[in-house]
Amino acid sequence: MNQTNTTIVRCASCGAGNRIPAERMGTPAKCGKCGSELSTGDEQTAYKMRCSGCGAKNKIPASKINAGPKCGKCSTPLPTGELFKPQPVMVTEANFDGEILKSPLPALMFAWAPW
Ligand SMILES: [Zn+2]
Ligand SMILES: [Zn+2]
Q1: pTM above 0.85, yes or no
Q2: Relative to the alpha carbon of 72, which ligand is closest?
Q3: CATH architecture under which domain 6-80 falls
């Protein structure tokens, strides 16, 4: 298993995969192939939040989490503080990496199987 702490960020312009070290994430980076800006902050460290007003899913970049973000659809302020309250998360094979391995907080896991 490859344990290097890098993230592949796909260039929006040319589609080349760029390997970004974890400590460089969130800082400006450029595509090694075409030189255009890579969105290291927005997509990788964005939080997803459902609007309590209209139910729309909002993506909030980590850099904007404390800037009082609003719903992109109905402009209801999003209570981003709730993102950091401990809460049970349903983890499946599909989101195990994101929820457990990349969690900034210690994760307590209760595992069960339906069979
Ligand atoms: Zn590129
Ligand atoms: Zn809304």
Answers
A1: no
A2: 2
A3: Roll (2.30)
